[in-house]
Amino acid sequence: MSKLSRRQLFITGLSVGGGASALAAATALARRYGLVPPDCRGIYGPGETLNYAAHRLLARDALAREFPRSMISNPPFPNQADPLGKEFDRLKDGKFSEWRLAVDGMVARPASFSVADVKCFPQHSQITQLQCEEGWSYIAEWTGARLSHLLDIVGALPQARYVFYSSFERDTWDSIDMDDARHPQTFIAYAMNGQELPVKHGGPLRMRLPRQMGYKNIKYINRLTVTDSLKGFGKGMGSIGAEYGYAWYAGI
Ligand SMILES: Nc1nc2c(c(=O)[nH]1)N[C@H]1C(S)=C(S)[C@@H](COP(=O)(O)O)O[C@H]1N2
Ligand SMILES: [Mo]
After folding, report:
1. Pocket, ligand 1, Cβ cutoff 6 A
2. Do 49 and 74 fall within a single domain?
3. Which DSSP category does 53 fall into?
4. Which residues surround ligand 2, an ion (CB under 5 A)?
5. Domain check: are 187 and 73 in the same one?
6. Domain housing 228
7. Beta carbons of 135 and 173 less than 8 angstroms apart
8. What's the domain count of the chain?
9. Closest residue (by CA) to atom 8 of ligand 1?
10. pLDDT digits (tens, 9 = 90+) for 91-130
């Protein structure tokens, strides 16, 4: 990919005045630099696509900030979760030995992993901040497998553009593009601060991607679908949050 300078991007940004020209600029940028704009209804909106383009052009491989152990929040802040029901309690009582993470879609080898399987993959840790859109945040150490490793194991096809992920919790799902899916800090996390990931924080498995806001970090994930289009999921916006007015791309 050719480099677009910060200045050029600002110039492009400045030269787009009205909605139509901003949309045209966003579309052109996405096309020219091989970006992957959210493909629901073509493009979400010029503002979001320009924000997405800026992140992808200027900080494609940037790492989210990592913190020293002394800055880990004590205690971490769990977001209130709805009761997950009897079946979840049953799985929990069985120490999640029956929990499965199914991986399907555009992959050479669809698979279904147990938590123990995921724990056998190369283990990585990060001390990063989880930031909620409601204004609070906490820092924790997350341990898990890289999503990129799972994608390699199942043989994600080169034409895939997104990873869609859904939760045991009803109507809870989201998606990310391949840049974020393959980013080294994007984890399927199973531990937090050196302990099993607590249920209130998404145990047994949650998506952890520190480059995006908290709401993209879906808890209790049980399915990943590799895809080249988000149209078949819900209203096609790629994210349950987006259906309620949040941005699909929530980069920080
Ligand atoms: N399944 C599920 N995942 C979820 C949510 C949820 O309500 N259900 N809330 C999201 C939001 S809005 C945030 S900010 C984070 C909060 O993570 P925490 O509970 O570890 O603080 O989880 C995200 N993942
Ligand atoms: Mo949140």
Report:
1. 77-79, 81, 130, 132, 167, 169, 172, 201, 214-215, 217-220
2. no
3. H
4. 132, 214-215
5. yes
6. 69-243
7. no
8. 2
9. 219
10. 999 999 999 999 999 999 999 999 999 999 999 999 999 9
